[in-house]
Design goal:
By secondary structure, the protein is α+β, with helices and mostly antiparallel strands. Helices cover about 25% and strands about 20% of the residues. The strands form three sheets. It has a four-stranded antiparallel beta sheet with strand order 1-6-7-5. Strands 2-3-4-8 form a four-stranded antiparallel beta sheet, covered by helices on one side. Strands 9-10 form a two-stranded antiparallel sheet. It is elongated and about 60 Å long. The protein starts with a helix and ends in a 10-residue tail after the last strand. About 5% of the residues have low confidence. The chain binds a DNA duplex (16 and 16 nucleotides) through loops.
DNA sequence: CGGCCATCCTGCACGC
DNA sequence: TGCGTGCAGGATGGCC
């Protein structure tokens, strides 16, 4: 479940390993992932030099020397294994051969990932995305104004990538707990002082997680065994049955917006009117 | 517009 | 121990 901090961690790793290298060959081991691979992907990538790696929401954008952009989304279980010595793993779907003799392998058991190539400013999967929570345009005023405009369940809204991009199940639960807002609150009824806290907490939590290289669960390493430490910092996610760190009340796991949701009913206030 | 559901897929945690 | 079942989850698309 890579979210913004995990994808950012992957970006840093890919940048270190890939920038300046030329792609000598690409092997596709199946027809596609979530979607079929684009026609002629191997040919289009072969011979290209990788110039830059960017991130938008949970997408990786790999800029080539001819203007082509390789788009990679890790879905639920995707990972890039760099300097791999082996590409025969059960779920190794894509192999990229680089001009330094190394091999990068895309492995994705659940195949919810996306790999596409495009050129220009616009891509169907990117065009509708909301602001980046760590960029300057995600201001407290912006959040206040836009929560007011909607009458939606706050958890559903924060998970909605067209509203705000990059948050997933983990960081939404963490941000709402840190702000003492119940995930079943309605966006427009959350008072200003709580929205200010929410805005602040989203940025603090994401930044701190990036600093720690993200959250890693068993079975989920990003790059050659490098793994995130933010798991140790999780205050509510996965803590069902344990005492809340703020009030010792038992943390519950409920369903909100179709998602498993962790909540402290004592600390987190439900704003519904 | 918003909520809800199904879909994609596999691994894993259950219960018997 | 081993099998079957059901669930999780990011994003989309359809339905009401």
């Amino acid at each position: 479940m890579p979210e913004l901090p995990e994808v950012e961690t992957v970006r840093t790793g890919l940048a270190r390993s890939w920038i300046g290298k030329r792609i000598d060959g690409v092997e596709l081991r199946r027809e596609g992932l979530r979607f079929p691979f684009p026609e002629g992907l191997e040919e289009r990538l072969t011979g290209r030099v990788i110039k830059q790696i960017r991130r938008r929401a949970k997408y990786l954008l790999i800029d080539m020397d001819n203007g082509d952009i390789l788009l990679s989304h890790l879905g639920m279980s995707g990972k890039w294994i760099l300097d791999s010595s082996d590409s025969e793993g059960k779920h190794d779907h894509v192999v990229i051969y680089l001009d330094d003799g190394s091999m990068s392998v895309y492995n994705d058991p659940r195949r919810f990932g996306v790999l596409d190539i495009f050129r220009g400013e616009s891509h169907k999967l990117l065009d509708h995305l909301g602001p980046e929570p760590l960029e300057d345009d995600f201001t407290c005023d912006w959040l206040l104004e836009n929560l007011k405009k909607k009458k939606r369940n706050i958890k559903a809204l924060l998970l909605d990538q067209s509203f705000l991009s990059g948050l997933g199940n983990i960081y939404v639960d963490e941000s709402l707990w840190a702000s003492n807002i119940h995930p079943n609150s309605i966006s427009c009824f959350i008072p200003k002082r709580k929205v200010i806290q929410l805005h602040n907490n989203i940025r603090i939590i994401l930044s701190e997680s990036i600093r720690q290289l993200g959250t890693t669960f068993i079975n989920f390493t990003f790059l050659n065994g490098q793994s995130g430490n933010y798991s140790n910092e999780l205050k509510i996610f996965g803590n069902q049955g344990k005492p809340c760190e703020k009030c010792l009340n038992k943390v519950k796991k409920i369903k909100v917006a179709g998602r498993g949701t962790h909540v402290c009913n004592k600390c987190q206030k439900k704003f519904k009117s």
